[in-house]
Please model this.
Amino acid sequence: MNIEKTKTFQATINIGLEVGYTNIVYDREKLIKELQTYQRQKIDKENVYLSASVSECNIVLNGQNEKHLKLEFINYPKFVLTVEEFKAEVFNLAKHLLIKMKQNRTVVIFTDETIMLEINKEIDPKI
Model:
């Protein structure tokens, strides 16, 4: 039995399932297909493997109750990256998904910091 270890470093991206603030909702499979396309390109071009755990959640703030998908990442020991590489890869994926899924903002939570990406200052009118 082979045992591989690496220092724990995690990241989370939360992506809304509503296009902008339009009340138009896309389904989980659309995001998963976009994620898999991105993963395939990274593997083929750069030999970067970024495995994601995808789960459903709701972001709730005052009148807002929006369905989201939570993408969770670990620096997987089989395909380990430096912390800097791991953060850059997750951050680039977050930027890609923000644009592809037509979101206004998203947050990337790393073990050591939280970063908000924002297209514009507009706030969901339901808040």
Remarks:
- The chain has one domain: 10-118.
- The chain has a mean pLDDT of 94.
